[in-house]
Write a structure and sequence with these properties.
Bound molecules: fructose -6-phosphate, magnesium ion
Radius of gyration: 21 Å
Helix content: 25-40%
Structural class: alpha+beta
Largest sheet: 10 strands, mixed
Number of strands: 16
Strand content: 25-35%
Number of helices: 10
Distance between the termini: 82 Å
Order of helices and strands: EHEEHEEHHEEHEEHEHEEEEEEHHH
Length: 382
Amino acid sequence: MLNGVLDLARKTTVSLIKCDVGSLAGHHVVPQPLFNLAEKSLQEAAKKGLINNFIVFNAGDDLELLMVHEKGEQNHDIHKLAWDTFKAAANRAAELKLYGAGQDILKNAFSGNVRGMGPGVAEMEIEERRSDPVVVFAADKTSAGSFNYPLFRIFADPMNTAGLVIDPAMLCGFKFEVIDTLENKSIVLKCPEEIYELLALIGTVGRYAISRIWRASDDMICAASSVSKLSLIAGKYVGKDDPVMITRAQHGLPAVGEILAPFMHSYFVQGWMRGSHWGPLMPVGLCDSKCTAFDGPPRIVALGFQVADGKISCGDDGEPMIADMFDDPAFSIARSEAMENAVMLRRMGEFEPARLSSEEMEYTTIQTVLEKLGKRFKPLEK
Ligand code: F6R
Ligand code: MG
Ligand code: MG
């Protein structure tokens, strides 16, 4: 069978589920004992055959569980595995007196799906192609709408993705599902026809977030991202949502290089210190996946792998083979730009536009401060 043609339509699910269960040195990084616990938990699940294989990694203070299995999306047992792992890790974090232990565990009892309980989820059930390259992204100190910009560049912008012009398999364009996170509604827009309408929505990154993308000619799923808003779940500020996403690449889809190209430059995202500031997103390798200056700058990691026979494909040692995509000098200009912009924004302190607009600040603890002042305001005399 030709490369890229569906191979017996084997259905495999990639689940990337994350949670801030507590971290070392403030909201800085996931420490080793929590990795050990998560590894052990997923190893046992793999032995029982619930998942086929997995990778545990971190985006700053977020523990990321990348699991490949054949149980489909939103599967009770897979979500319970993630939930139990996060709960156990949060308990361990509490024992170790780590900071913010259980930060994203917003509900007590598991209700069948981690969506709406605190953790972030990106999931994609795919019909495996002969060779299926996948890139997953995880960001820290930012929110769901932060992926709108790169997803638009990758799947709708011919100035980024040459394949939209050169590859006949992509001329049909892509369909974008956009979630209105305030009103809990969704809409599907087709590009290139509705490119302007799409931009009209997704430019408002604090409200609208792209959740799924399909190739228009055959509805092949090619991207999925987490769109949860912790503040809307908890009804108060509980940190930013630190989103995750999964993209499929090559052979009639954007190439891995086209998926990574938007990150050659830094761009501004909401989040950073106290989830209340605009900050430059910095693409980093796993070794730099930890937030420092002003709790940032917001960072993003990207892991590339092949999905094969229901698994992340493995090397001779039986371990999943993973490419740390941003651990590369090709992204050093983006990193320098991020730091130049970071120092410029920080010079402005608490003045907009360094700080988020008052509308966005509604979801932060500044409201308590403002409420106190409210009573002291007197009407102006005419
Ligand atoms: C942002 C974040 C941090 C904290 C900040 C204050 O998502 O997690 O920037 O908001 O460190 O944290 P607390 O209020 O826990 O002292
Ligand atoms: Mg934290
Ligand atoms: Mg985080």
